[in-house]
Each structure stands twice: as C-alpha cells, then as structure tokens.
Design a protein that fits this description.
The chain has helices at 2-27, 32-58, 66-93, 125-143, 153-175, 180-183, 192-210, 226-245, 253-281, 286-300, 309-334, 342-360, 363-366, 377-407, 414-419, 421-426. By secondary structure, the chain is an all-alpha fold. It is globular. The longest helix has 31 residues, at 377-407. It contains 16 helices and no strands. 53% of the residues are buried.
Length: 431
Amino acid sequence: MGAHSRAVRLLAAAGFFAGTTPAFAETSTINAADTAWMMVATALVLMMTIPGLALFYAGMVRKKNVLATMAQSLAAVALISILWVAYGYSLAFVGDGSWIGTFERWFLSGMTMESVNPAAKTIPEALFMLYQMTFAVITVALVAGSVADRMRFSAYLWFSAGWFTFVYVPLAHWVWGGGFLMTMGVLDFAGGLVVHLSAGIGGLVAAKVLGNRHGYGSENLAPFDLSLAVIGTGMLWVGWFGFNGGSALTASPRAVWAISATHLSACAGALTWAALEWWTRRKPSVLGMISGAVAGLGTITPASGFVAPWAGIVIGVVAGIVCFWACTWLKQRLNYDDSLDVFGVHGVGGITGTLLCGVFAMKTIGDTSGLIEGNPQQVLTQFYGVAITLAWTAVATVALLKLVGAFAPLRVTVQQELEGLDISQHGEALQ
C-alpha cells in the first residue's frame, strides 16, 4: 500500500505540473532584458517633451512668451497622459478593426501585471501602454510650435484634447494598431506619419486659421535665447534613441541599427543645413545647425528600423536639403507664419522619410524590401499612407479649430499679444 500511495502521489504531482506548464509558459514570455530596455526608452521619450521640447521651443520664442511656450509642453504631458489611459490606448491598440479599436481597456480595465499586448509580447502590457503614451504626448506638444506667441491657453487645451482624440488616436490605430494602413503594408517604424507628418500638417493648418503673428514680416521676432534651444536639441537627440530604438520593442540588434541610423541621420542633417547656410548666407547659424539635426532625426524616424545605418546618412542629407528649402523658400512663397517651423521640419521631413523608407527598406532588417531591392510597389504604398495621413489630419484639424473657435476665441487679443502670453495667460514673467 505504501509503494502504491507514493506512486499515486508522484503521478498526481506530475499531472499538476504538466497541467500548469502552458500557463507558466504564457506568463514567461515577458523578458527581463526587453522590459528593462523599454523602461529606459519610455523615460527617454518622455524626456523629449519635458524638458527637451519645452527648452527647444522656449529658446526660439521671444522672452515675453518663454513660460507660456513651456506651459504648452507641460500641459500636453499632463492632459494627454490622462486621456491616453482613459480611452486613447484602448482605441489605438486594442482590437483589430480596420478603422478604430475597442473600449476593452477603458481606464486600463482588465489589464494585469502579467498581461501583454499582441504587438509587444515580451514586455508587460502596462509598459507598452506607457511607451506609446509618450508618443501621443510629444505629437500633441509638437503642434503648439506652429501657433506659438498667439494662441490662448484655454483654447490650446480644448484643441489638444480634440486633436488627440480625432487625429492621433485613429492614425496610431491605422498604422500601428492593426488598422487598414498597417494591413496594406504601409511602413512607419517610429512615427513619420503618425507623429511628424500629422503634427506638421496640424501645425500648418492651425497657423493658417489663427493668422500671422502681429508684426510678422515687419518686426524683429528673433529668438530670446538660442542656448536653451541647443540644450533642448541635445535632449531631443538623446531621447530619439528611445524614440526610434525603442520602437523595436525588444533589446535586439534591430534596435541598435535603428539607433545607429538615427544618429547618423541627425549628424548629416546638421552638416547639410550648415553647408547650405554657408553657401547662401556666408555664415552657418546655430539655429540652422540645430534645425538640420532635428530635420535629420524626424526624417529618419519612419525608416530607422527598416534601413541600414549607411542609408541614415543619405536620408539625413536629403532631409537637410528638403527641410531647408521648406523653411526658407516655400515658407516665404506661401506666406504662412509657422512660428517654429513645425511643418517645414516635421511635416516635410515626415513625408520625405516615409517615401525614402520605401526606397531603402531592406528585407534582412525589417522583412520588407524597398525600391533598391527591386520592390518599387513599396514606394507607391508609402505614398498612399502619406496622402491618407495628410488629408485626414488637415480636414480634422480645420473642423476642430472651427468647433473650438465657436465656443471661445482661439487667439489672444492684440494687446495681450503685445504684452506677452506669459503675463496675459499665466500672470508670470521672466525678469
């Protein structure tokens, strides 16, 4: 009887462990190295908005608008983070509908410490949610650069909430969350369409609707302190390693290659813009060099996880040329007052990088071949993604501005603009 009892207990134990193995295997898909890297990447991307973008933008406006400009970045972090948790994450990344997700994760309902998102199976779902949240935050904050010096803070908050809901969330789902652009094969590794093109078009439309700043074209609107902008550029540059490298969602060679292409593109963009200023104006400006660096960073973003590092240099050179042209000749020709050149750098850079991704994509890196590997169809697919993003963003932005403007003024008064938004909107000022 004793031997029989021991055999029964052994069989029962074997059955217990056999029965629990599948569940254990499912939870063990969370990888410690991937999780650690993505925690770092999340922190780096958040740093891109505060203090990175806040300093970058604040250094390029006049002294009387520095605090108000920083307040817009800070407000974007606070507001969009809450809205992302409430419904943004769920609608963007939960469910596989062609147009929008579901409310299954409304206020993170049903999320556990062990749950994972199908898009990132080796990290906790909560971490994936936070990482994607930082992208939503900086995209909304970027738009503010186009309307710096003149938009009412209350109107900015209402517009930001609406723009996030009706522009960013759908685009994120279409391109990254299983929507129709993703299904048809549009490539956007880290946000050429979802982040840069949408912010650039949104900013351009907002600048046109609000109108030019008082004194634009006739008064000196020189930056207050470019040293702040240089510091902000450095933080953006470093943060972009998390932005593009983190979009691999794993601690992997692909993440390293994405970071390599990103850095080289920024270097090439800065040098190219400086060379163009040297040629046309006899002096390379600091503003030009940091603009070129950011142009290179934004333009490589959609391609970073699909191309070889050497292609990052080529894309950076093209970014420096095209974005310089957009911020000088095109801006003057169309006579729009995009205060901090969001469209010229991010919008034009997003278009350029998305199309060049279709040219330089390599199958050995991102499982998709581009034009250089004999697949010209990918360029057409990329163009389709650009057209859809541009059209949707433009129409939705106009509609939102008209809606907000029907309830409250979008713009400060002339007197408030002259005295500065720091005082008129926040009751504070730099001494």
